[in-house]
Amino acid sequence: MTSFILRAATGYLMPLLLLLSVFMLLRGHNEPGGGFIGGLLAAAAFAFHALAWGPRATLELLRADPRTIIAAGLAAALLAGVVAAAAGEPFLTAHWLPIALPGVGKVGTPLLFDVGVYLVVVGTTTLILLTLGED
Amino acid sequence: MSSGWIVLLPLLAPLAAAAAGLLAWRAPRIQAALGIVGAGAQLAAGLGLLQQVLREGVQAVQLGSWPAPFGITFAADLLGAVMVVVTGVIGLAVTVYSLADIDPGRRAFAYFPLVQVLLAGVAGAFLTGDIFNLYVCFEVLLMASFVLLALGGERAQMAGALTYVTLNLVSSALFLAGVGLTYGITRSLNMAELHLRLGVVAESRPELVLALAGLFFVAFGIKAAVFPLYTWLPASYHTPPVAVSALLAGLLTKVGVYALIRVLTLVFPPLPGVGTFLLAVASLTMVFGVLGAVAMFETRRILSFHIVSQIGYMVMGLALVGSDSPAVRAAGLAAAVLYIVHHIIVKANLFLVSGIAARLGGSFQLARVGGLAAAAPWLALLFLIPAGSLAGVPPLSGFWAKLAVVRAGLAGEAWWTVAAALGAGLLTVLSMVKIWTEAFWKPAPDTATPPPPAARWRLALLAAPSLGLAALTVAIGLYPRPLYELARRAAEQLLAPSNYVAAVGVATAHDSARGDGKGGQ
User: Fold this and answer.
1) B residues 251-270 near A, CB within 8 Å?
2) pLDDT digits (tens, 9 = 90+) for B239-261
3) What ipTM is given for this predicted complex?
4) How far apart are CA A101 and CA B466, in angstroms?
5) How many domains, in total, are found in chain A?
6) Structural domain of residue A115, as residue ranges?
């Protein structure tokens, strides 16, 4: 089933949703948002794409296999926790870079952890959607 | 204070192995190797942790350096450390066994990383000092076990997995409700702080605390498979591949028993009538479990019912915390700890052996196999050790575990439960003899369809973990004192929660907060 309306709308909606997801991810440290919500928004963008163009096209668009995305996210989150070991502090103790990036704010291990969560959620949700979509 | 990485290593090692394994999802061989490394690292970390706890007492770590009642606490006392070591042993044994037992189809769907996730969840449950985090760890291990049970998608597996998932979700919901109510009543989720606060609540509103304990009992009772909440277990544990059965049978119900022990000794103050209630539950669990086993003629179903029956012995040891005499309380808890350790090793091993027997004989149905004692005498010996231990034949580990439980029961004057324990023990012998005579002793029936002989390396890989676990059983049987001493010390720690509370550091945080308040006035 092809719908030109959906395809045309996806062209506009997808970049917006992806931008919003990154915004949510970055704002999540002190305000509502974070890796989980951001990840779900990004997954919604890919779901739109899969509905409009079919799961196979979405897989090509993603380039990386969803499983790789999940694993990378898990690894990022674990790494964010393990950084503290270098300073002899407990697991997950936050460490920040001394300078703030323009537009992003302070960068540190909590952000890396959130990015990890984001990737796991994106990977898991798209894996489920694409697997169900293929049947 | 050290930063407590040793407390988290048994959890982080398998988690890292799982993440790395997923990254290599195209290469099941690498996943298998990472599985061995992860389980081995967990065992090594567990041994290191146990040594540290023996030397320096309860170890605690505050994740993210957030002080105790506000952040997530992980804490290892002797019970937690011992459980983690046993988890590592079973994890390693089952992973090695899986190398020869698990088919490529299941491997392609990340079987080995899933086992690592399960091991991480189990270790987390044993080490966490936060009751909500305990819920999270339960979910992690349950998610992994759901997938492991259903992986492969055979018809019987789906039926079993559905029962398992449904009842465990009910249990999780009850657990979560209990956690929510606990927070509503006490404004805390830290188990050490709950110990301080629920005691105060119990003085003014004892019925509230009792209701809360009831909720937790049902939630953990389903996971531990006690009477009358055990029906999901025999319906599901015989359906997946043997390696998965062994993993679940060895570890998962014992996580439920562990949670019961932890909650009743640390979180809740002594509750009226809990001893009598638990003794009744223990007796019924032992008897009903063993009667179920007597009626079965499929090896794994017999073994599944025996898990239920054996859980009764552990609950019996725990029930004695309701006793008035401190000596009986200590003896009961020590017996429960000893029983759990013995049981995990033996039960996992029995499942592993039953898998080898089915591979050689062609079936798990006792009517369709036979003559294994003549065909594979080494396997007969491998079966006799854990089977004798389960039945309580001296001088194997089960004998000492049963002896400890029964002696504690006699000291606590729990006559009916002791009678039930002895009766169930006798019937356990009966069903082990049943497997022995049917599968090993009687000549192979004409209907038997022995499969083509397996390759030598495959048999060696299957037999090696089983041999290792059998050696542990014999070692505990011949030198029970070190393990009993460990169990006794673990029980002492459980009965004096002030050490745990002090290690976590909430008591001091409290006092200083109170002091600050006074200073401000």
Assistant:
1) none
2) 888 999 999 998 999 999 999 99
3) 0.87
4) 56
5) 1
6) 4-133
